[in-house]
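Before relying on records like the one below, remember that each one covers exactly one chain. Contacts with other chains, cofactors or solvent are not represented anywhere in the record.
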Amino acid sequence: MFKRLVLLSLPLAAFAADLPVRDVVLYKHGVGYFSRSGELAAGDTAQLAFKASEMNDVLKSLTIVDASGAPIAGVRYDASEPLEQRLAEFPFRVTEGAPLVGFLDQLKGARLDLGPNNGGVIVSARVIHSNDPARPGEREVVVILADNAELRTIDLSAVSYVRFTDPKNQTMLRDYLTIASGARSRDRRNVFIDASKQGTRRVTASYMIPAAVWKSSYRLIFPATGEPMLEGWAIIDNTSGDDWTNVNLSVVSGRPISFISQLYAPKYVTRPGAEVAEVQAAAPQVFEGVVGGFMADSANMAKAEMRLGAVAPQQARPASPSSIAPNTIAAELGDLFEYRFSTPVTVKQGESAMLPFLQQKLGARKLLIYSERFGANPQNAAELTNSTGKTLDGGPITVYDANAYAGEALIETLKADDKRLISYGVDLGTRITTKIDSSAANVRELHLRRGVLTTRNALQESKTYTINNVDATRKTIIIEHPLRQSYALISEVKPKETTSSALRFEVTVGGKATETFVVKEERVYDQTSTISNMTPDVLASSIQGRPLSAAAKTQVDRILAKKCEIATNQAQSQAAETNVRNIASDQDRYRQNINTLRGVAGQDPLVQQYSKQLSDSEVRLTTLRDQQVQLQRAAQTLQTELNTLIESADF
């Protein structure tokens, strides 16, 4: 049987050197910092494997440092094109299960070394059927053109190796196999770092890629005597695809900005079409005279220089001894905070770990906290003051009180010297009820400006908290009173703290006692009215009993008197208009009667009577119309005078 795996005997060089993971920094915003380092021989290549989804971040953040300061030879990586498209660039294909001669026949003209005294250029390669009874079956043979111009048929089963003598063919086959090997995992992409060809170098490659965020959890311990203790544990997950063996690990609290930029996939732009003008008969050209000097283009293209900054090593500081051996070094990183583990950490791929990063005493006192949303009972709580000098990352806290489990709480990230309340249980020995009382709104101020009357009103409201402590122990309670933007506090007792949504009052209640606590607030609001639209009665009621100065009262009285004159004028005008309508109606009736009786025998006296009444009504109508004209003129004068009074009023 002929050989189908003979390609494995090709002397291929080692593909890549190993750069193990040395440093890992995990953040809270979905990325991690990784640093790999190792030695590369002259001309050697290091291979880093990544998931396809990580390539955008790698291309955005990769830095490479040669410890000697010399530049690296280059960086290459797998393109994002499909495997078939990438392999199509090669002049041959290595088909799975195909015989060696099927591959060699694609490389006609390539020079082969088939052992001692067997070398030449490939002419063809094929599988033949043997008729020799001693060697039945199929055989793989290659026809070569030897250096002496002889055509020789070589049975591949009789040679010990097959080798390309042209380095270009060796490199091309090695590249083909590298691509095919990387394609075994469709999600993996390779980055190659080529070292210079001079001497052995120590190379460090650093980059940021998506990583599982680290999580923190705490244990708050209230001993029977002594100060409270806080333990902090970091929970990390190795989903990177590589083992972390004796790595320098850090976890960082904070959320720097990070985003994905599409750098891995090729980008193309649509170019505009342009055509050369059709050749036409040349015509004489008239050139303009020179009016200025020519400026030669002297801009030179500057060569791009990659500056790769080394990461400065951090100075180690001794860690304090601890029963849980947190063994961490804490440090501010700008607005971030880092916990760096002093001893190397090992976490296998696909595994997770819990690492202690804190055990310190801190300022804490037990109390109760109450908000109406809790119901009738306040909650067991603690006021924590971060006296550790470190940033405490947000996470769950399990509380132990006097060696017993007391409950659980959540805390947001707490900076050094900051303070926070946590609640971890319900206090069934204390009940709190509330009652609200409000007073009628009273007018504080009255203003008139540019015809707008503004009334400033004040509404007072009090809320009484009744605290009933059925336990024998004295208790301190933080009452969270809702902070309402339109209300101002008028109580003599001021809040201990103010948050964005609540006022916090601290109240102490004795054992088996009941206490009341009252919060008084006031809401001041304005009401506006246009004085020109107000009737005299409404205006009079609006200012009655209001705090007005003598000058302001005089201004309002003048406006009120003028409005009364206008009201009288309007009443007279309406009465005159009513009389005009009535007379006009009577005239219509007189005319109808006259037209009906005219020409009727014996009705002349009645017709004359209606005619006289019609004449008299016409005289009265004329008088009323003159009166209406006078009233209209008076109304205009009064309105002008009122407008002047209103515009000049200011208090």
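Residues 57 and 64 are 15 Å apart (CA to CA).
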